[in-house]
Amino acid sequence: MSKKYSTTTTLIIVESPAKCKKIEEYLGPGYKCLASFGHLRELTSLDKINIKEDFKPTFTVINNALKKKQIELLRKEIKNADDVILATDDDREGEAISFHIQQLFHLPENTKRIVFNEITEGALKRAIQTPRTIDMNIVYAQQARQILDLLVGFKITPVLWKFITSNSENSLSAGRCQTPALRLIYDNQREIESADNKTVYNTMGFFTNMNLPFELNHQIEKEDDLIDFLDGTVDFTHVYNCSHPTKTMKSQPEPFSTSKLQQAASNELHFSPKETMKLCQSLYEAGYITYMRTDSKKYSVDFIETTKAYILKNYENKYINENIDQLACSKEEDTNSQLQITSQEKPEKKKSNSSKSQDMIQGAHEAIRPTKISLKDLPEKVNYREKKMYKLIWENTLESCMSPAIYNTVKADIQAYHNFVFNYTSELINFPGWKIVKNKFSTDNKEYQYLQTIKKNSHIKYNKIFSKATIKNMKQHYTEARLVHLLEEKGIGRPSTFSMLVEKIQERGYVKKGDITGNNIMVKDFELNDTGDIFEVEVKREFGNEKNKLILQPLGKIVIEFLDKHFADILNYDFTREMEDDLDKISKGLLISQDLCKKCNDKLDNTIDELKKKDIGKFDIKIDDKHSYTICKYGPVIKCVEKVDGKKMTTYKALKKDLDIDLNRLENGGYELEDLLASSSSTMTTSTPTNVNNSVLGEYEGKDVILKKGKFGLYISWGDSSKTLKQFGNRPIESITFEEVKPLLEEGSNMVREITKDISIRKSKKGDYVFFKTSKMKKPKFFDLKKCEEDYKTCDIDKIKCWLKETYNIF
Question: Are 42 and 17 found together in one domain?
Fold first, then answer.
């Protein structure tokens, strides 16, 4: 039976609908919670920024069916409510959304604004008891960020379109933080290409009755020097020594900030930063973890006390980190979300005197942690990947509050020829400390005991000496986790934007995540046996093989080199970091936003004015007198310019599919034309190409999708159906993919909208319905859509997922 709010009603407005049910449940009768579904107003173009009047922005209501419907619902509920509380997320975007809600619905300036770091009953009630008002300094910082992003994007991106290409979707773009992120990948690629990759030898000596591998403390670079070392080793008197046991500590991990969590999830769970944030959003909204966008490494005082009690109950007092109180937020930080700050009427016209309060607000978030340390495992209804993410957070949180692990360590060394030394270290756990959480340690180490039984200064014979050829200091491509770490280290973006930046450079086609095939190189390994014989073994060894790395694409190289040449002063690391620091200052009332916008805009205009004076042609790399490599609106192609019957004719040919082209080699004339052209490539002109073989693109609903070329142009056929591809124009046939034609196939099917690979909305004679079938299910399940109040054909896909989860417990 539904509740009726006939008495005094307080309306709480949040961003996400997934929070509403839980908030109403915790606060009880008298409270109603609705969502804005993110921003309600937007800044759409440069025309909406009055540059002459202190960069004053003009916001417009987002014009789509979902937003219109939600705005009307909010308007109605605000009118009926006795009190309104704004409870959007505790970050710049959330503060701005509260401001837009206040403006759009003409709420008073002293409308209550609350923030909470976790969706628990205690946190919500504390927030309700200590509201504040909208912090306009934070709003101004968010608006400045929007304006800066528009200035950079809308002024530089058209330059890319002009000098490189403008495709059907105008996917080329520059961004204030996006471009420096791409620059990190580019700089690393240049280091990889310029590395000398010297071959060196790592040498292991096998000694003792246990045949333990001692590592030589020196890499030998030349084969002759290695032979000399091995020859000298035959008659050398090796002297053994072992240290007394010493205690070494292995520190517990730090609490999770956003970037540290993204790195750990990438390295340990192989989750992308985007998926990590998506899973954490679900866990946060369900009340399982604290807010996931933070750079804090502190916990609340209450949580520290609860965790102490948990450790004491489940382990012993000695497992509590003796410095655990240093992990606790200060009293001011711990209560900052309850601070009430009254906005000045014109806070931007003078520097704020409440910088201390502002610092508190900016540091409001804790590190990412479980809301209840006692909850080790999530309920069965939670999906598998969310459980893995929660386990990672729970374990790290508990470990960070525990004592260091203590090991007894012995270091054995053996004097070697040429004053080199063979080393071997062995550890025995003394006190597990934080490592007891995962219980992955051994209390038995025979080597540790054995090394101490060998007499010191005794002569010891080798069993075998083995020298393995390898590449010295071989540079590797970045993982997504490594890129996130560098973004944080260089101050490019903020925790809330790291995953978006990593995703954006991939979406644009500048970078691709994939595997790098290594090079097979013939090398020599050397082995000295116990009778003094040296054996030389030639082996083919693969170097440079990498998995799931970020790989710079030709388009990314072209774009970043153009931008670096003409916009280096604006898109370099230092200027980007300075702007981020200045945005922080604005949020604290220490800087006026117009000053930052003017500095950036003046720099942009001056750079673009200088560029207009230069004679810069369209991007083009010459291959021979007729052919060149260029970018057309559908991607890289070979352009051919020649005279036919006295007339100049331009034609295009497709590149080999999946060709990993090296632009440096191309620019230096390292490719022949046949190295680049697809084997079946035919000339593409303004007339329709002919005589190209059929090509199977993929499978759709159990039938092959075949790309064909007929009298009237390209078309696809599958089963008894066919459809023209006139919208693809004269695009090279080899470059057309299944993903691009799939939407055309779905137009004629019963598919209304794909939600995930397992869930879709489909149509039937009786109306639309939800189709659900995983690879493990023998039969699909069908769900009714009649109770869905959303416009499921056009609304945000996350909104549908949320409704399906609440209504049918899918996901």
Answer: yes
